């Protein structure tokens, strides 16, 4: 699929995560799977980050977009009962801003959490998931220190206050995998046929392969609360967080 396209759709969401409105054209409609656009800023979901919601506006009509289906093409799922634009028509897409920006803050907050846990405790990620404003991440951390929950919350918020810049670049696969510790998960999740790897860099803290949307600097995350630390077997600890500002 590559980094810039998914099937027939140009991925505007990865090129510019601040983009909220754009014009595009419908290139295919499948009654079962949804609508395919030539250009889309809808993040389709993946890597634990849920898909965007929003609307398509065309000829005085509104079609609400409530999800995605990823296959050979990137399908946008319309709300049940909404009219569907025909192939060839020009539409204006619009992303639900509050949901997208909250997910960007949440995702970047998870990367700060990951960077702190790796730096201070040497633990890799074994799983994770997020919803707008709250998330969980699992680490291979058999023996967390006493007071781990409070120590972790303090360390993460100290990092967030530094407002480190978040940058994104795309590298050839071999060059990306040569970066030390570029894969922060216990299992390498980069598909073997991907020849380019998208890198998200929180400067001075965390560098890893990632396909999601992020804020421009980590001060935009605000503060986080470590809600709970749970045991998930002898080797794993689950850390639950939420945004508090």
From TrEMBL:
Pull one GO CC term from this UniProt entry.
cytoplasm
Please give the InterPro entries that the UniProt record associates with this protein. Ala-tRNA-synth_IIc_core (IPR018165), Alanyl-tRNA_Editing_Enzymes (IPR051335), Thr/Ala-tRNA-synth_IIc_edit (IPR018163), Transl_B-barrel_sf (IPR009000), tRNA_SAD (IPR012947)
Q: Name one GO molecular function term.
A: aminoacyl-tRNA deacylase activity
Q: Which UniProt keywords apply?
A: Metal-binding, Zinc
Subcellular location per UniProt equals: Cytoplasm
Which terms under GO biological process does the entry name?
Answer: alanyl-tRNA aminoacylation
Q: Which cofactor does it need?
A: Zn(2+)
Cross-referenced SMART domains, in alphabetical order?
Answer: tRNA_SAD (SM00863)
Q: Which residues form the Alanyl-transfer RNA synthetases family profile domain?
A: 1-239
Species name for this entry? Micromonospora wenchangensis
Q: What is the protein's name according to its record?
A: Alanyl-tRNA editing protein
Where does it primarily localize?
Answer: cytoplasm
One Pfam entry name? tRNA_SAD
């Amino acid at each position: 699929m590559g980094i810039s396209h998914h099937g027939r759709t140009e991925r505007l969401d990865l090129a510019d995560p601040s983009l909220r409105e754009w014009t595009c054209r419908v290139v295919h409609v499948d009654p079962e799977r949804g609508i395919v656009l030539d250009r889309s800023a809808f993040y389709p979901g993946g890597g634990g980050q849920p898909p965007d919601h929003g609307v398509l506006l065309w000829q005085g009509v509104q079609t609400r977009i409530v999800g995605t289906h990823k296959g050979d093409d990137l399908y946008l799922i319309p709300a049940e009962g909404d009219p569907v634009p025909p192939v060839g028509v020009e539409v204006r897409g619009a992303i639900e801003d509050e949901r997208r920006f909250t997910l960007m803050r949440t995702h970047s907050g998870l990367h700060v959490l990951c960077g702190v846990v790796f730096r201070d405790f040497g633990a890799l990620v074994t799983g994770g998931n997020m919803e707008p404003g709250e998330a969980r991440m699992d680490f291979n951390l058999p023996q967390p220190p006493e007071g781990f929950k409070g120590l972790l919350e303090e360390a993460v918020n100290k990092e967030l206050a530094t407002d480190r810049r978040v940058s994104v670049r795309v590298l050839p696969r071999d060059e990306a995998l040569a970066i030390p510790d570029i894969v922060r998960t216990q299992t390498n999740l980069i598909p073997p046929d991907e020849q380019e790897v998208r890198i998200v860099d929180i400067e001075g803290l965390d560098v890893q392969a990632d396909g999601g949307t992020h804020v421009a600097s980590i001060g935009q995350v605000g503060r986080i609360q470590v809600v709970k630390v749970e045991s998930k077997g002898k080797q794993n600890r689950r850390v639950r967080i939420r945004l508090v500002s």
